[in-house]
Amino acid sequence: MNEDQRSLLLSSSSRFPPPQGVKLSYGTAGFRADASILQSTVYRVGILAALRAVKTQSVIGLMITASHNKVSDNGIKVADPSGGMLSQDWEPFADTLANACDPQQLVQLITDFVENENITLDGAKSVEILVARDTRPSGESLLEAAKQGICSIIGAVALDMGILTTPTLHWMVRARNKGVKASEIDYFEQLSSSFRCLLELIPRGSDSRNDADKLVVDGANGVGGEKLEILKKMLNGLVIEVRNSGKEGGVLNEGVGADYVQKEKVVPCGFGSQDVGIRCASLDGDADRLVYFILPSKSSRKIELVDGDKILSLFAVFIKEQLSILNKKRNVNVNDGYQCCLGIVQTAYANGASTDYLKQLGLEVIFTPTGVKYLHEKAAQYDIGIYFEANGHGTILFSEQFLRWLEAKITELSDVAKGSEQHKAALRLLAVTELINQAVGDALSGVLLVEAILQHMGWSIEKWSKLYEDLPSRQLKVKVVDRTAVVTANAETVVVTPPGIQEAINAETAKYPRGRCFIRPSGTEDVIRVYAEASSENAADSLANSVAKLVDQKLGFDSY
Ligand code: G16
């Protein structure tokens, strides 16, 4: 590192002292904490993103968001050149950088890292980092700190993309690195034109619903609602009403949004008796999660949840059906020896009934720990990998090999079997590859794919919801002294430390028919999460409560 670079880092970092007595770590989806203590972390992640851009000689993304967390929190996520999450190899560096106590130590860490990673800083070509934020009030000043971090690496340029959904920023990074047009309007155009294409390919006579059959979307008082208002104007064949767009004065994620709806299973604010029986959906604070729900009756606050597992199942049924039409030996022998490998990725939160259903369809299902970064990595190993967390975070990945095969089939079929069912199935699959965000889970592209598939199948939300019946489940959070004391294994289904807890969970679980229960430290909030499933609601509640009590006794504040 030359002297100019060194003194630039020393002077800029002295303006961002780290908070005292706080240890930050790169969690499930980047750093998250109360916004008031994040200036220095965000500045330092700006440096990391610039180094990543120099190392990869590609565009990198930086998103200021705390997604589903409360409005006073904020956070920062890095998008790698592929548009996916930051490579896990760099997470330890992110941790040490965030916790360096003074400018000298920080510069030393960067010097050592740059040397180990063979990053050539001096005379490097200029590199771009796209920065964006969600609607949190703390976002503006944190984004400024991120820019200062980026500009502390000579040759790195921060491009401020303003307020975006997290998945839009990931999409832009991916598109830019592929050399295609990548503005927000390009994103909306890609989504709306591929959605239109899917509607045009709906078989005639399909019991498709009419436009009056509207979808009502809860925008979590965040960025997703305001962006959906723009996107919906570009759509035909779908009527969307947005509630909780943030303009009505509601608070971000408070009593609204995908996390609230999925965890509490009650009606979000802004919805009521007028919505009984209507198809409703909820986005989270930065629009990377999506769940659907129905209000079954006027007299109850309970909802019927159609969660990420059901979205995954709907996508799997549709993709499988299109593949089987395409592979039928009818007009042309499209089954030319290429075997498309379709895989499903879930986490321990997946409802047991969903996994049974997917296996009954003959699909391969594998499990990873919580966090899109893990699911995405596994899904990328298939020709078509569909991954979803029950909380509504997921997408579909298509391999380059599959895309090349599909394009060749479309060319072949348009010559010899234009307009045939096989040709249409191939065109539908191509439209899905363009509609679904292959960088990361995306509520806006997800909602359009769900809507297109429901219209294609002629299904109501009730019919979709009845694909299988969820096992009753309950999720709780427990505040503990040190959540890092809990270490898990086997895709988070077994507690390894502290000793004794797993045995106690097993003993509780054994008391309930179809009981299943696990605990894990959250990577986005300072809590231990408890998940329980059983054959009845009372049993699931009781199992979750007794395990939560156990966690509190062993690790809570009174246990010390
Ligand atoms: C993030 C991650 C998700 C994860 C969720 C909860 O979502 O991207 O993969 O499921 O956090 O994680 P945890 O249980 O560790 O707190 P989001 O939507 O908040 O970015």
Summarize the entry for a quick read:
The protein has 560 residues and is α/β, with parallel strands linked by helices.
The strand order across the widest sheet is 1-3-2-4-5
Class from helix and strand fractions? alpha/beta
Overall morphology: globular
Average pLDDT works out at: 94
Describe it.
41% of the residues lie in helices and 17% in strands. The protein is of the alpha/beta class and 560 residues long. It folds into 3 domains: 3-163, Alpha-D-Glucose-1,6-Bisphosphate, subunit A, domain 3 (Alpha-D-Glucose-1,6-Bisphosphate, Chain A, domain 3, 3-Layer(aba) Sandwich); 181-468, no CATH class; 473-559, Alpha-D-phosphohexomutase, C-terminal domain (TATA-Binding Protein). A hairpin with an 8-residue loop joins strand 2 (60-64) and strand 3.
